[in-house]
Amino acid sequence: MNEYADLLIIGAGPAGMSAALAAAPSGARIVVLDDNPLSGGQIWRDGPQASLPKQARQLRERLHACANIRHHPGTRVIACPGHKQLLVEDADRGWLIDYDKLILCTGARELLLPFPGWTLPGVTGAGGLQALIKGGLPVQGERVVIAGSGPLLLASAATAKHNGAQVVRIAEQASLAAVAGFALQLPRWPGKLVQSLYLFDRQYRTDTHVVAALGSDRLEGVRLSQQGTIVELDCDRLACGFGLIPNVQLGQALGCEVTGSALAVDAWQATSLADHYAAGECTGFGGSELALVEGEIAGLAAVGETSAAEQLWPRRARWQGFARALNGAFRLDPKLKALAQADTLVCRCEDVPYAAIAGHRDWREAKLASRCGMGACQGRVCGGALQYLFDWQPSPPRPPFSPARIETFLCVDETPPA
Amino acid sequence: MPDMIVDGRALHVAEGTTVAAALALAGDGTTRTSVAGQRRAPLCGMGICQECRVTINGRRRLACQTLCQNDMHVQTRP
User: Fold this and answer.
1) Which CATH fold would you assign to the domain B3-75?
2) Are B41 and A121 in contact (CB under 8 A)?
3) pLDDT in tens, A333-354
4) What is the pTM of this model?
């Protein structure tokens, strides 16, 4: 029933796949978990309306061909009941995994900020819409507005258009100067330059942000502030994401140090906790190329191949430069902190409005008074928003990290009652 | 090619389709009713926000991370 891994990897995106493949030649027993039904993470999400790049397909084939790598898709971490032990659950059962070394490749999620109307059906994250379309969501003939910040807006627009949607506006909150400054640096990473030229869209507007989603039972339109002027556009979907935030919850719960909003790692991708490593977006947003090399370093370091890991440091430094340029260019304008109105729901799980949250001293006090962050998502959405809005540090999560079945908890103590 | 039932309605979808997409193919795409009574639909698309939780064959699952399979019964209303 229970399982043992010399090396347990949480997350089968670029970082996790790359870590597993780097560590595999050591012969270590490797287990890779992911809560999605297929490997590839968000960037290489497969589906009936997705087209995977060759590199992703090859990595996936190599991963599945390795006899000493066991992959558990559709599996979530529920708790950390003992030292070097995790309680996990899939669609059918729960079980315990004991491990010697662990690599966290938990990725990032979108920063979703509350604005009037954002709970209407038809409003999604920007990467959220892209993921849903890849999974088969029909958008043929629909009018789509994409808003927020960062290069994900263009990628999401490309997926929507490819599947027959009409993208009526792409609203980027950053200034033209910031975006142009970033674009001018792109020749340093030629692959990224080609990608951005391919993705450019004539509906792209800088200095433009969402003000409200309009509609009664379902989204009917969007109000934007476009370079200082208010405009309203009719649309069927609004995909709005304000960049990415690292998924640090599991690392935090295990006791790994967090700096800023990411898991802190050293040159070996080791966290502050012995035998626990982290790679990819959970250590800070940087894109798939950075995630791949970080994963490789972590995988090699975890099996003691330190000299091979060290050889990869220059490649990592090159992509860290890209990450710095990116994060500087798409810094959020403080005026986005004023989007939510008094009656705008901030916590969507418990339906807690902005007025019930603002004015508290910190996250804990607001939670106790209003129930914000205490619903099914455990503050993953409103906690990220409130960190941006009020600079509140979310407290480390307590198990269960995710809604789980009672039978799963019974795995923790198998001693029959006296 | 999975055959399934979504809120009492028979549906036939392409292999690899998520339950979140199937709900949009079968109806208005909504997944749950919020504490205050609003209908909600998938938001994050990647297993974070829990807005897309539905009941599939009696168990609570996330529609965006569940692939359609034969004989699935999906319910979005209690």
Assistant:
1) Ubiquitin-like (UB roll) (3.10.20)
2) yes
3) 999 999 999 999 999 999 999 9
4) 0.96
